[in-house]
Amino acid sequence: MASSHCSIALLCFLVFCFIVAYTVSSTSLYYDEQESLYQVLDSINSGIDWRSLFPDDLCNSAPHGIVCDYFSDENGTITPHITELNFGYVSDFSPNPPCTFNSMFSPRLSSFIYLRKLFFYRCFTETQVSFPGFLSTLGSTLEELVFIENPSMVGTLTGKLGNFRHLRRFILTGTNVSGEIPDDIGGLLELEQVTISRNRINGVVPQSLGNLKKLKILDLSYNGLEGNLTESIGKMTELLKLDLCSNRFKGRIPESLVGLQKLEFLDLSYNRFANFGIPLFLAEMTNMRELYLSGNSLGGQIPEIWEKLEGMLGLGLSRLDLVGEIPASMGVVLRNICYLGLDHNKLEGTVPEEFGFLESLHEMNLENNKLSGRLPFSAKFSARIGGKLKLAGNPNLCIDEEHSSAQDSSGLGYLKFCNKPNKPDAVLFSISGCSSPVQSSLFLILLLLFLTFLFIE
């Protein structure tokens, strides 16, 4: 009996020793990360006493946005490590630690050896922070690097991304980071999203981007990128979204884009592509849902390329110097279209009758063309779309009088009513196609007298 009690006591002692050993090991390995995290929290918001609010192990009790995971070493020792740092209040559903107008960032990032995600939302808005300044000490474990609306962030991208071999998402929007997109970005083969928009990036798009075979989203919009768009962009065959709008690209829209057979969203609007017309190869990109080419001097007519694009939801062909008539096939095929922009061109002729049956349409802009004739839209159609049916700048367009009751509510008050077609007066019969009304009346009188005479007889 005594032996049994001794065995139980020994087992309890060993369990206690294991717990103590685990706790000591965990604390000693995690201490540097915890201290660095306090430094980070103080640098983004020094007005909060983070150590008093979260005095214990930050992996057990931490602000929202601080994420930990547990890892086992070669000896089987399990320790916690910080894997995500998310800063900047986004919403009540993701209340990350809020940043202040004078947020800084100068911690020892080298302590976060297991870090997978680094996220900043509106943290650097007044005090200038250098973009590369705090990345050089990060390890290769990083998978997501996200900076959104940080206008006081400056610096360049050159030579700062090459170490992140496991990076899947890189988002940099709304900053003052400048310079060129580094060529070594093409070596980050795990990338699935690259969003570098609304910055001061210039130069050309590196040919190495074509190496990113896993990329699904490429957004380089609202920068100062220029030159011809590299043909290698057509090699990213997994691409779902390509947004290059509001840059300074010139020349021809590369035909290699036809290789992007999974592409659903393409925006090349407001660049300097010129004189080659709307690309015919778009007819082969059958997964396209949104296409925006507005603001380029492409010229030419609207081609008959819509047969296989019945899934199109949004189409922007404004300010392209287009001429000729609007193809009726657009109204036949694009039955799912929600937005259609053809304004500020030189289109002429009538609005196709088929457009009157686009029941999914929520907005259509045909302003400032040379369109004429009777509109094919019913009063119900016009009232449903309301002010989003834009037709101004086409003085020869007209509407039927049936629209008069809904003219103001539909926003078509500036259009004139169409003239009624002339209809000949109805007659019972005539002697010839040239008979006058007097001749017809005389004939009727003589006929009646003749019938009366026969009846008397």
TrEMBL record:
It is found in: Cell membrane. Keywords: Cell membrane, Glycoprotein, Leucine-rich repeat, Membrane, Receptor, Repeat, Signal, Transmembrane, Transmembrane helix. The chain crosses the membrane at residues 438-456. Residues 159-376 form the Disease resistance R13L4/SHOC-2-like LRR domain. It comes from the Eukaryota. Its main location: membrane. Belongs to the RLP family. InterPro entries: LRR_dom_sf, LRR_R13L4/SHOC2-like. One of its GO terms (cellular component) is plasma membrane. PANTHER family: OS01G0623000 PROTEIN, UNNAMED PRODUCT. This is Disease resistance R13L4/SHOC-2-like LRR domain-containing protein. It comes from Protea cynaroides. It is a single-pass type I membrane protein. Residues 1-25 form the signal peptide.
